Amino acid sequence: MPWSITSAITGCFAGCMFSSSSSSTSNSSPHESVGAPSHLDGEWTTHTSNLTALFCLSRPSPPRPAHPPEIVLQILSHPTRWLLTYSKSTSNIHVSNQERPIITLPPFTTSEINLVRRIVFRFRSKDQGFSWDSQHHGTYDHSWTWFEAVVRQDCDEHAGSGDMVMEDDPRHANDSYVRKKWGLQHNRHAGTQFEDYEVAFEHGDDRMAELKNVMGERDVIELRACARYPAWMNQVEEATVEVWCLDDLSGREVENHVNS
What we know:
This protein has 6 helices and 8 strands; from the N terminus they run H-H-H-E-E-H-E-E-H-E-E-H-E-E. The protein has helices at about 5-20, 45-55, 70-75, 110-115, 155-160, 205-215, and strands at about 85-95, 100-105, 115-125, 145-150, 180-185, 195-200, 220-225, 235-245. It is elongated and about 75 Å long.
């Protein structure tokens, strides 16, 4: 059978369970694998699954030897092993003739930035549903409502002592704090129905590389809903931003740090 990440993880889990169940009826030699450590008991998450995979793959389970470190690293770097580190949502927002931050994630540390592997922007939206440019109705041409992804400095750090900057504060849309913007998606011109959109920055693509290059310590990622010119309105029924990260196996329960 050809080697695969799925078969390697399945095999190592089976080896751990077999060795754990058999350890009570036989004496294990120093080279035989033993059961998973007790601190993995309890709720099963991607993080505890990764710790178990690390434990199993890095130890021999006769007749299989321990996997080489580079193979273990490859397995734990696979997208199925990434952690949902942040997920923040909002709903029922109308934006007219402005660029408005609608979701702002907490500031990132440098170590967290290095671990980011995927950022997903989801939104369900439409414009005001009419315009005078009837030739463009139903297309994305000459649409003046859209969404942007933004990396900017944390406004709270530039506020006065004890002055918390709220998410809809105009300073969030102040370009003097912005490091980089990316256009994500326009609404359909004079659309009458809400539509679902999803845009992802993926590990290895140009946008992700650029984001990680411009993003500094304590910078934030935000989703902006935009509309330009009077009468144009970006109507957002719901929106979500997700950040998926490589598990650094530090023992912190990253998946519990999900914001709603």
